[in-house]
């Protein structure tokens, strides 16, 4: 289920909630159960969707993993393929039902969850095998996940839908270099990823400046840039499998910092710091469980 990655998906939701303005006039001391419960449900939804998506990734890759990654749960015999299918279906179902609990059938959250789950399954089965469509497909899952958080406020997705394109580009860039994790990558792929990273940083920084909150977002942006660019530069100098793997893992975990930067760009420093607190949790889980 990639627990460390699920934490980054929860960070997407929290960033989306902040972007929507849901907590605009609220403080931690004034929050009520009615206000926090929808956020908890969306966090549960993304945990189910992400967990289910990566479980099915392993299901579809069972034969390949026997050769390239025999330590994974299914080829190593920790869990059978049938048990994994049951688990994956359960997780996706929980994710979709949790999303529909926010806004009901007339709201957009549940339908975004269905779209996210469908995108994940399409990537797992077909998308990953396409050099261009695969990274875009994977990025779409993240973009929809951010919109899932934004959907907590009715009508907010119509205003901020374009922000969902940023994680699409970012994750497409991460996925682009991830193809070289096993046998090594190329300097060209790392260059492409570096350009995409730069566009993401400029977009978040530009929006923060437009909102007159650049100074508040700058520390988060600098940390984000350092986390993703340092291992990517090493992979550029030596695109071996281990270096590519470290760059990919850094790109995934750094999503939490990117989301904190989004929150800070919308003048919610307290919530940005709260999102950032997820980073050590994700990094700790990353030492116990596989990230890629």
UniProtKB/TrEMBL annotation:
According to the record, the segments passing through the membrane are 7-24, 36-57, 78-99, 105-123, 135-153, 159-178, 190-211, 217-236, 248-265, 271-290
What topology does it adopt in the membrane?
Multi-pass membrane protein
Record-linked Pfam families: UbiA
* Source species of the chain: Chitinophaga flava
Q: Transferase as a keyword?
A: yes
- Superkingdom of this protein's organism: Bacteria
Q: Which GO terms describe its molecular function?
A: transferase activity, transferring alkyl or aryl (other than methyl) groups
> What name appears for this protein in its UniProt entry?
Polyprenyltransferase
Principal location listed in the UniProt entry? membrane
- Keywords associated with the record: Cell membrane, Membrane, Transferase, Transmembrane, Transmembrane helix
Q: Which GO terms describe its cellular component?
A: membrane
**Where is this protein found?**
Membrane
